[in-house]
Amino acid sequence: MWIFILLFSFGGKIQGVVYDADTKEPLPYANVLVLNTEIGTTTDDEGRFYTLNVPPGKHSLVFSYIGYQTVKLENVIVETGQTVRLEVKMKTTAIEVSPITVISEKELIKKDMVGTTYIIRKEEIPILSMGQISEIITLQPSVVSFDTAIHVRGGRATEVDYMIDNVSIIDPQSGEPAINISKNIVNEVIFLPGSFDAEYGRAMSGVVNLISERPGPNFGGQIQGGSEMTTPYSYSFGHKNTQTLFNLPISQRLRTVFSLDLFHTDDWDPRTKINPHQQRDDYSVYGKVLWNQSGKLNLNLSYAGSRSQFDRYRPEYIFNLDHYRSDFKKGNLQVCNLNYLPDSKKFFNITVSRLWMNRKFGVREQGPYGIFEDFEFKRYQLLEYPRGTNENPFGVGIFKIRTEGDYPEYQDHNSLVIKTNIRSDLQIHKYHEIKSGLEWAYLDLKRFAYLLSSDTTNPIVDDWYYFPKEYGIYLQDNIDYENLYMKVGFRYDYFSPEIPGISGTGVLSPRIGCSFMITDWLFFRTNIGRYTQPPLYDYVYRYYNLLPFPPYLDYLFWHIQGILGNPELKPEKTTSYEIGLQGIINKNLTANFCAYSKSTTDLVGVRKAQVGTFVHNRYFNIEYANIQGTDVILDYRNSIYRAKISYSLSWAKGTSSYADDVYWRYYYENPDTNVIPPAEEFYLDFDQRHRIFIQTDINLPFNIRFYALTYLGNGFPYTPPGSEGKYIERNIFRFPFQKQVDCHLDKDILFGKIKGNIFLEILNIFNWRHQISNLGTVVPLSWIKESDFNYTIPITSSYYHPAADFNHDGIISPHENYQAYVDLVKATDESPNNYSPLRRLRIGVSLGL
């Protein structure tokens, strides 16, 4: 029997007490063994025992003591970062008898949950419809999905840290995950919204930790495929997905697991219909090797890689989409991890990780491209500035409708993050568990940006290469009394842009939380903490290396209204408060309530600043936000049926929704430096007052499983069009109420040793649609006046086009010119894309050993 421990301190903790069933006296020095591992210990003088870093999953424990009947405790469920508490009764016996088997009952409420924690288990993941695995948290309270981005507790999308096996996968330039992994390799998801331990840095709103599958002792595999179908009652956006998973044990000491995921869709942002030039092709691979040198020392290696490439649609380029923007993102993660467990009360870990990502966008060369073929981009030196001409089906030209030329920008970003983590976990006393860690990160960041300002004579080129550094240290004491649990810790982070003359910044983040028993069925919890993260390095270095601007560039930069980076940006900060209750209503029904308040300061925003001759846009720590909310969850489950209802009430207000918010609202196409944004709060773009999720999961006869999800929520706020809404009142209207019901139905089928499964997914089963945007034509039709078209265009003119000459008399009359102009603008109408997608139907099958 060998212990195979997941990467880092991904396991949970088992502690408890062993005592005489008759006298209630503790039994010192009783033996405790976790079966199928080499984890074992003995009880202390008070009959207590502790085992750290037990792999998550179901375990069996054996308790033995001379003169007592051996006890085998089965179905002990261990979860990552959680503590399982056991009370074991042993009966005396004069002769050797067979062990008594006891089935452990899972704790319905967690004593050590001082902050809100959501755990999504492996059996729940396959039935959830999602594109990226990170989207799985969108069904949890406090989470809002808005315009393809995910916001936690009213924070910006870049305030969430996504991790794979406790290693961050966030690109420090863009703030988005550098890689993606298949959902079939994920064993469980740990979601910490708003309050988390001192070991987590670089996040202010939440942490999403994707715990990967543990290699098994036996050979096995699974392959699954699914696609959307077009029927008279459903619409297909060309969704296709294939997933594979293989367990490949090489020996008893050496085990491996491998996963591959392929994904294609004809429209990655579905609305009413498939938009042209919006297809997407992704793949991801994952592999892990676990090698156990001894029961105390373990070496673990893992690799994750993914590639995503997709086209974008924009109505301004509707007649020239082959020359519009496409995006490419490719990344990989390598991890080497060494665990050392000298005994059951001590755990040490050293981890070295390498995260790399390349992100490009521009005009791609025409395909076709296979699923594993990467986009090739048009050489930036060959880009032509886009123009609006009459080369379109309507024969008239409008500058905003680009019928010739190219998307005028090409960018190529590279991020390399090499990180070393040293961690320790020590049970130094029955009441105290000390966790500590040291982190060091070396960053290698590159950016090349090429922008045509108006022609190819003077392009703006931003080509930089910097090596910022980040350090962190933390210490936390987990205090565990009988009816009281506390976490007291702090974290210190230091960030340096590594630019001569600009010093780094250190930030101290204290955190404290406690949970205590009110009754034997009700726990109260509260926590307060400070959370920080450095600004995105794109905001730090953008165009900085071009300073001081030469005269021609000074004017061009002012002309295009570019945004200048600021190496003196400080870390953004959030102070969060939370109170909550966990309660057991009966053996099948639990309730969870929490209320929280967040104050976020030093958020990055854009303001005008004197740089050189002109006043330019520049990033500053100038924005703030205030968020409050409550979450309520009722969870009922038995062996056949589960129902979960979650309700969220929240208010998210601040001075900007995004770092570039003020720029787009006030400064873009408006170089007037006298415009000063009002320093007042408004409801942020992703503020959603009420959200309700109702989840039902039923195990039906004949190995059939039925799952249904009902979503209800308020519409998001928006600003009415026009100068008054743009410059004075923000987000004063709201889109209509939202509702949707999805369902999943699957059936297991056995073919000897092969386990098959067929499934059916219906998204938006009732075909309800709600408005999610306020798009229209490129030019408002109300702006087009026939009185402005008071000229004719003869056939001899270079502006003549036969498509606009309706009667083909060789002259485009004022009325024909006006009508062609109106028809051209109507062709850019995006109002059908203002609504959520139609009903979709997906079918699939899986086979596994």
What descriptors fit this protein?
about 850 residues; Immunoglobulin-like; single chain; Ferric Hydroxamate Uptake Protein, Chain A, domain 1; 22-stranded antiparallel β-barrel; mainly beta
Write the CATH homologous superfamily of the domain at 118-210: TonB-dependent receptor, plug domain
Report the top-level CATH class of the domain at 118-210.
Answer: Mainly Beta
| Overall body shape | globular
| Largest sheet, strands/sense/barrel | 22 strands, antiparallel, barrel
For the record, give the distance between the C-alpha atoms at the N and C termini, rounded to a whole number.
23 Å
Query: Into which percent range does the helicity of residues fall?
Result: under 10%
What does this entry look like structurally?
- This protein has a 22-stranded antiparallel barrel.
- It has five helices and 44 strands.
- The chain is mainly beta.
- Among the domains are: 12-103, Carboxypeptidase-like, regulatory domain (Immunoglobulin-like, Sandwich), CATH 2.60.40.1120; 118-210, TonB-dependent receptor, plug domain (Ferric Hydroxamate Uptake Protein, Chain A, domain 1); 737-778 and 839-849, no CATH class; 781-834, no CATH class.
- A hairpin with a 4-residue loop joins strand 17 and strand 18 (254-265).
- The protein is 5% helix and 50% strand.
Write the layout of secondary structure elements.
Elements: E1 12-20, E2 31-34, E3 40-42, E4 48-54, E5 57-64, E6 71-78, E7 83-90, E8 100-103, E9 118-121, E10 143-146, E11 149-152, E12 160-164, E13 167-168, E14 186-193, E15 206-212, E16 220-229, E17 240-249, E18 254-265, E19 280-292, E20 297-311, E21 326-343, E22 346-362, E23 409-429, E24 432-451, E25 460-466, E26 469-480, E27 484-496, E28 505-519, E29 522-533, H1 537-541, H2 551-560, E30 563-564, E31 572-586, E32 589-611, E33 614-637, E34 641-654, H3 661-667, E35 682-683, E36 690-700, E37 704-713, E38 717-718, H4 723-727, E39 733-734, E40 738-751, E41 754-763, E42 793-794, E43 811-812, H5 814-826, E44 840-848
Parallel strand pairs: 1-7, 6-8, 12-15, 30-33
Antiparallel strand pairs: 1-4, 2-3, 2-5, 5-6, 9-14, 10-11, 12-13, 14-15, 16-17, 16-44, 17-18, 18-19, 19-20, 20-21, 21-22, 22-23, 23-24, 24-25, 24-26, 26-27, 27-28, 28-29, 29-31, 31-32, 32-33, 33-34, 34-35, 34-36, 36-37, 37-40, 38-39, 40-41, 41-44, 42-43
